[in-house]
Specification:
Blueprint: E1 35-36, E2 40-41, E3 66-70, E4 76-80, E5 89-91, H1 94-103, H2 125-128, H3 145-150, E6 155-160, H4 166-176, E7 180-184, H5 191-201, H6 205-222, E8 235-239, E9 246-247, H7 256-260, E10 264-265, E11 278-279, H8 282-288, E12 292-295, H9 298-306, H10 314-317, E13 321-323, H11 340-351, H12 360-372, H13 378-384
Helix pairs in contact: 5-6, 6-11
Length: 386
């Protein structure tokens, strides 16, 4: 089994092309555009839905035994006080479903996107069979309020972020009669607090603390890369989409793993929104002169090696195109999640094999065992990097 630095690695689409901040509360029968495999939509941006998302007949029943808590947005939220079974929780965005997956999959009532057959072995059987409920923002399937309520959730969790209109999302869930608890998890540095908060919320405090400390230790391990001067950093282009001409700003949480790993993201800018995926031209990529290309898209990786148009890019000419591991969740982005802890370590070793030594197989097994409760077989481990 080999884990080459210079060879292309497995592409990652993650759970979603995440995320615009357009909250949606779709009525029964409303659907989004065609779904792509485990990771996104290529439909037009959605319009916000106002009005009657859930009728009085489908509205959730107020809790008989209320419990008041303060969420990560500082809001007082009343949820049911349930102690005889796991909470039933609707994760309203892909990163929130990753959060539920690592804390306790038994709390999940649905997914943002269907699990493709190739990924099923990396999910607990119960999770891989969960219904697709969509979400309240992003480019994926729209949430169907009636379908969500039919599964009798105790509450929803929402994404606290500067790009997200929390008041509008809260109002939408209020029309459903469903409490929503906001959790902040934009950056990897947000995840320790998110894991501790969610662990306490779901009565999994020990689990939340264990995972939070592991992320904190990873951030400490990566700290030394901050001192590497810009001139020594590899110039990296993050190619998204089938043509590779979509990317994300160096200040976007979508590319945070690159920054944590000591890369110089050649696309220097401030993100315009949550979703990202900003268009560039091939001429711009040529001018950026990247040393390395990272991509989610296997189709693009195959195309770019054979395309005469891309041969002027050093990274292509020299075969430095790397595909990101994707199962069960993307290691780098889409969705941006706690998987960035493993992804940043992998990238740091890829960029600095001498200065940042890492036993990638051992680290991968350890992370999957701790965060995902999975013992990887040799075949599964090799498959992640193929």
């Amino acid at each position: 089994m080999s884990f080459p630095h210079a060879k292309s690695l497995f592409v990652a689409l993650g759970v979603a092309l995440c995320c615009n901040a357009s909250p949606i509360f779709a009525q029964h029968g409303e659907h989004a555009g065609a779904q792509t495999q485990h990771g996104g939509q290529h439909n037009a941006p959605r319009n916000e839905a106002h009005g009657n998302s859930a009728t009085a007949a489908t509205k959730a029943t107020p809790p008989a035994n209320p419990l008041t808590l303060t969420d990560m947005a500082g809001r007082k939220v009343v949820i049911p006080d349930i102690t005889d079974r796991p909470y039933r929780v609707f994760g309203s965005a892909p990163p929130l479903n990753v959060l539920l997956h690592v804390i306790n999959p038994e709390n999940m009532i649905g997914l943002s996107f269907a699990v493709p057959p190739a990924a099923a072995e990396f999910f607990p059987p119960r999770v891989s069979r969960l219904p697709v409920l969509g979400g309240v923002f992003g480019q994926g399937p729209q949430m169907n309020a009636e379908a969500v309520l039919a599964l009798q959730p105790d509450f929803a969790i929402g994404w606290k972020s500067p790009f997200v209109d929390a008041n509008r999302i809260e109002a939408g869930f209020a029309r459903m009669g469903l409490p929503v608890v906001f959790i902040q998890l934009d950056t990897l540095a947000d995840w320790p607090a998110a894991l501790r908060f969610t662990g306490k919320l779901l009565r999994q405090e020990k689990r939340g603390e264990e995972l939070a400390r592991d992320v904190e230790q990873t951030l400490v391990r990566l700290e030394k890369l901050k001192t590497i001067p810009e001139a020594r950093r590899p110039r990296v282009y993050y190619a998204e989409g089938p043509d590779g001409l979509t990317t994300d700003c160096h200040l976007s949480f979508h590319t945070e793993a690159l920054e944590l790993a000591g890369a110089y993201n050649v696309y220097r800018c401030t993100p315009k929104d949550h979703y990202g995926m900003e268009k560039v031209s091939l001429e711009q990529v040529l001018a950026y002169a990247p040393d390395i290309i990272l991509t989610h898209d296997r189709g693009f990786a195959s195309l770019v090696r054979q395309s005469p148009r891309w041969q002027g890019v050093n990274a292509v000419r020299e075969g430095r195109i790397h595909l990101i591991p994707r199962w069960p969740h993307n290691w780098v982005d889409r969705p941006p999640s706690v998987m960035r802890a493993l992804g940043a370590l992998w990238l740091a070793n890829l960029f600095y094999p001498t200065d940042f030594p890492l036993d990638v197989p051992t680290e991968t097994r350890r992370f999957y065992r701790l965060f995902l409760g999975q013992e990887l077989s040799d075949a599964q481990l090799e498959g992640l990097f193929r």
